[in-house]
Amino acid sequence: MLTNVLSIATTDQTKPIRMVQISDCHLFEDPDARFLGMNTEDSFQSVIELIKKEQPLQRLTEQASTDNAVSLFIATGDIAQTPSPATYTRFLERMSTFDQPCVWLQGNHDLNHLLLETPNLQANMNLIELGDHWLIIMLNSSNDHEIEGRFSTEELNWLTAQLKAYPNRHIIVALHHNPMKIQSEWIDQCGLSNAYDFWAIIDQAPQVRAVVHGHVHQVFESTRGSVKIWSCPSTCIQFKPLCEKFTVDNLPSGYRWFDLHHNGQIDSGVSRIAQMPAGVDFDSLGY
Ligand SMILES: [Fe+2]
Predict the structure, then answer these.
(1) CATH number for the domain including 56?
(2) How far is the CA of 10 from the centre of ligand 1 (A)?
(3) Cα-to-centroid distance, 156 and ligand 1 (Å)
(4) For residue 20, what are the domain limits?
(5) 67 CA → ligand 1 middle, Å
(6) Ligand 1 center from residue 55 Cα (angstroms)
(7) Cα 59 to ligand 1 centre (Å)
(8) Would 10 be classed as within a structural domain?
(9) How many angstroms separate the alpha carbon of residue 169 from the centre of ligand 1?
(10) Which long-range contacts (C-beta less than 8 Å, at least 24 apart) are formed by 10-14?
(11) What is the pLDDT of residues 192-220, one digit of tens each?
(12) pLDDT classification of 67: cutoffs 50, 70, 90
């Protein structure tokens, strides 16, 4: 498995580093197509505009303000609903309106070879050294055409090797599928099936501060020992928490931000657009 390292230098060691997570954009090859009545292209763009409005975006090296500037975007899978080179190119074009790099990982609706073949090599970086103290590890829990997540043995061995290689950095591990049950039966049936093996590795790595994921289209927050677990809202449809069966929520699309302090502390929060776009099919029984 390839190790692709992206190093992002920070000049001001006194401020925490800000990272922004987006997830589950479910973009179509046809930008006019709709997902449960929602145009996912438009909702994604609304979230981009929200980020531009809320987040300081000047490069850290040019930063003079007291706010933290975003230094990295991570996209935690299901970039596409209908994966194609055109879909992924459009995603990257929209993200390239930010100066900061955006790295992605595969969700169950994505196709791995299309992500890897994209001309934007930066998007496929899987180890991000953020400043002097942090490391983001991007993992692939998806297998083409399978809804449920499962790490390959190769992926788990690679994770173990990276944790050994970086004993002195605070680490965030990112993946698509939920590695912990969220008490929504229909989602928990298609979470990370070998979560036991994953946690056995994480439990041996005290420098891991958080595990962050997508897939669940809702906010889920938990802990395992000292490790924080955070999910991200989708940039399109939200799923209602604590439901036995598929249920669309009436919350608007959003994103998650993180402030990574040099002592390993993380502050995090979620922000959503003001209003749910019109036309969403709340009675849908699935997709
Ligand atoms: Fe999704």
Answers:
(1) 3.60.21.10
(2) 32
(3) 23
(4) 16-272
(5) 32
(6) 24
(7) 30
(8) no
(9) 30
(10) 10/60, 10/71, 10/130, 10/131, 10/132, 11/60, 11/61, 11/63, 12/60, 12/63, 13/131, 13/132, 13/262
(11) 999 999 999 999 999 999 999 999 999 99
(12) low
